[in-house]
Amino acid sequence: LGHRVGRVRATPSASASASAPRSALPQRCTPGVLVFSAGWLAARSSQPHPNRFIYGDLAGLDLKGKKVAIFGLGDQGGYGDNFCDAMDELKTCFQGSGAEIVGSWSTDGYDHMESKSVDGAKFVGLACDEDNQPEMSEDRVKAWIAQIKGEGMPL
User: Fold this and answer.
1) Which pTM was predicted?
2) N or C: which end of the chain has fewer CB within 10 A?
3) Residue 101: left (phi > 0), alpha (psi -120 to 50), or beta?
C-alpha cells in the first residue's frame, strides 16, 4: 500500500511517523498529518513501541486545528471480524489531542464481518486489503487522496 500512497509526496511538514522523536512530531506549524495503521497493530500488539507512541507521546500533543487522515491495511478474509480495527484507535487518540479527522471512506465494496473502524456506513479512514482486493487499492487511493484534498488536507 505504501507504494500506492507514496505517489503523493509528503514533506516533513505534512506527515509524521510513529518512529519520529517527540520533538519531530507536528505541533506548531504542520497543517496536516497522514497516519498509516497496519490492521490491529495498536491495542493487540505485544511490542511496546506502537503503544508507547499512541497512548504516550500522542496523548500529550496539542493538535488543535490540525487535519489528520488515516489509512490502514487489513485482511478481510483472514481477519474479517476485526478488519482495520487500529484505525479507530488512532482516530480516538488524535481526536483526543484536538485534531480534526478527515477522510472517512464508504464500506461499500468490502467483505468483512466487523470493524471498530466503522462509524455508520463509513470507515474512519481509507481501508485497503492487499490480500483479497489488491486490484481495488490503486483506484481507492487515488479517489481518497482527491477526497482528503477537498476536505482541506494540505498535500
Assistant:
1) 0.75
2) C
3) beta
Give first-to-last CA distance, the chain, whole Å: 18
3-state DSSP call for residue 59? helix
What pairing do the DSSP bridges indicate for beta strands 105-106 and 126-128?
unpaired
Cα–Cα distance for residue pair 127/39, rounded to 1 Å: 9
In a 3-state reduction of DSSP, which class is residue 122?
Answer: strand
Alpha-helix runs per DSSP H in 25-133: 41-44, 48-52, 86-96
Q: In this predicted structure, what is the pLDDT of residue 59?
A: 74
User: In this structure, what are the phi and psi dihedrals at residue 92, rounded to the nearest 5 degrees?
Assistant: -60, -45
Identify the burial level of 51 via C-beta atoms within 10 angstroms of its C-beta, where 0-12 means exposed, 13-18 middle and 19 or more buried. middle
Separation CA 94–CA 99 (nearest Å): 6
Segments in the chain forming alpha helices (H): 2-5, 41-44, 48-52, 86-96, 134-150
- pLDDT tens, position by position, 57-96: 777 788 999 999 999 999 999 999 999 998 998 898 899 9
Which one-letter amino acid corresponds to residue 44?
R
What's at 77, amino acid-wise? G
CB 37 within 8 A of CB 72: yes
